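Give me structure tokens for this 289-residue protein.
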Amino acid sequence: MGVLKKFEQRLEGLVNGTFAKVFKSEVQPVEIAGALQRECDNNATIWNRDRTVVPNDFIVELSAPDYERLSPYSGQLGDELAGMVRDYAKQQRYTFMGPIKVNLEKADDLDTGLYRVRSRTLASSSNQQGAPQAPGAPGAGRPAAGAPGGYGYPPAAPPAGAPPMPSAPPPGTRPGGYGYPQPATQRPAAAPTSGARTRYWIEINGTRHQISRPTLVLGRSTDADVRIDDPGVSRRHCEIRTGTPSTIQDLGSTNGIVVDGQHTTRATLRDGSRIVVGSTTVIYRQAEG
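Here you go.
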């Protein structure tokens, strides 16, 4: 069972269904959870062959109406989201520099139903030697006594023999967090030469499906290019078109599509984009060479 599905099931039984009533706005817990997963993927820093460090401190910014609606439950929701991040990190073999925290904040510039996610890597005082914490390790996900406070606290130095942590995220990531623009110095490198060839594929439940044609139809029908056995998926649910840029288009499905945490009928895709159809998560990938 996928991490997002387990997260949804935990929410269903939480506080006698309170969240089912609270989240009838456009913002859905699974969308926020998907955005947190993407924050981890986009900001993962490889130390060495066995260590990939991801952010452990997250802020979810909500519109004023959504924040007022959700703030009474922010503690419980934050704990569930932190648990989801921990499960996802274990699945992806990511590690942390300190305890996992997810907090909700109000953003007056957002309309109802919209949100942003920001993330940082925070080092706990018990981890000052710089050794990353595995998701299930003692102390992982729990604040350590005397842990340094303040959002954006810099991580500790890496252990002897390990590559140093970069002072800024690698090119192509979003240091400001979900939905924030990149500084000019961290924009992706120039386009590859004309001789380079881009490969496209999607990943569903750990299985890779190559995209060898300009279009790829996802759906429950046997006529779809990639069949998804999910009752929430329509027979011809959506279509991916590869190119510069690649896009996804809803094909009049019953339940629609969610791309990178946003309900939409059409969206631009980039490497690592997360597409939710029914209860299935599809990860879009592309690479040069």
